[in-house]
Amino acid sequence: MSFLERHPEKPLLANRRLRAVIGVVVLALLAVPFVTTDALTGLILTGLVFVMLGVSWNLLAGYAGQISLGHAAFFGMGAFVAAWLTTPSAAGFPASIQLPILVAVVVGGVAAALIALIIGPIIFRLSGHYFAIGTLALAAVIELVMLDQRSLTGGSTGYYVQGDLAINDFVGHGDVMFLLTLVATVLTIAVTYRIVRGAGGLGMKAIHDDEEAASSLGVNPLKYKMYAFVVSSFFAGLAGGLYGHYTLYINPESTLAVTWTIDSLVIVILGGMGTFAGPILGSALFLLLDTGLAAIVGSVATTIEGTLIILFIIFLPQGLYGLAEDYLITDVGRGGASAAPKSSDATPGTDPDVVSDED
């Protein structure tokens, strides 16, 4: 008997056993800042940020089929806009625009979404590899501009962000930011899940599988590309604002670094692109690899990590979700249980949580 049973008329999330596991994980995460060290709390918060980045990037790339290499730009701009609103004096803005951290972080996400809304119709004139290169170039231009504007960003030295959400001596600023990031992560997952299982998700899957065929059937490709792009950018900006106000320091070279995009891509590849649970599983594995290998083998950790990722791509192209689907999930038909199909054979019509990679 498998760990989970999936019925054709119900989503996998309807499984009570899976819901129980999710509940236990969330409760355990709620306790993290109160039962662990500050270093471990910061590490797990980084993992939550990875989940937000992975889930949001997967919405655009895995479901809508638009491989963006500019995700770091929206993460960084969300962080900077939020920082400008909580620490306006450091960027030369009047103190009258100062906002509470929570409001500023949300505005940072909205600002990232507005940037996507403005540049989307232009950048989506490109497709395929050209779109990927275009988004990478856009991110590089934004980073260079922000580096050059020392009065706004502090240049290469960056600047410290004001913020103190400490409740008392026991619950400090970092603890509150961790809990806010956890809430934002759950919100990101929930909203993305609703989108994927709704009409918007069907439109994204249609243009992912065959854009020309979808267009001939009345699906507007630009509409669903923009939908995915704007939502994805909002959550990336939200993650940036939260991370910046946890570390209380931002720097164009690190906050807007392309490594945030690479990390998002690797997380989705490890977990399973075009699968809903993939980025969550991939974030956990990536965090373990990134920190565990560094502690064990030191300077050669990056080389080993890269080798493991290549092996994943070759031998587990569907990622951890594909592995879990093969061994832990059984599809139950109306006539009884049947063996679970492999992720590579899944289509949007047979499994709402998986997007086919056959183009």
UniProtKB/TrEMBL annotation:
Keyword match Membrane: yes
Span list, region Disordered: 335-359
InterPro entries reported for this sequence: ABC_transp_permease, LivM-like
Membrane topology, record value: Multi-pass membrane protein
Regions that span the bilayer: 20-36, 42-60, 67-85, 97-123, 130-147, 176-196, 226-246, 266-289, 296-316
Principal subcellular localisation of the protein: membrane
Subcellular location(s) of the protein: Cell membrane
Entry's Gene Ontology molecular function annotations: branched-chain amino acid transmembrane transporter activity
A Pfam family reported for this protein in Swiss-Prot or TrEMBL: BPD_transp_2
Record keywords: Cell membrane, Membrane, Transmembrane, Transmembrane helix
Superkingdom of origin organism: Archaea
Entry keyword annotation includes Transmembrane helix: yes
Record's GO cellular component terms: plasma membrane
UniProt xrefs under PANTHER family: HIGH-AFFINITY BRANCHED-CHAIN AMINO ACID TRANSPORT PROTEIN BRAE (PTHR30482:SF10), HIGH-AFFINITY BRANCHED-CHAIN AMINO ACID TRANSPORT SYSTEM PERMEASE (PTHR30482)
Protein name as it appears in the record: Branched-chain amino acid ABC transporter permease
Source organism: Haloarcula rubra
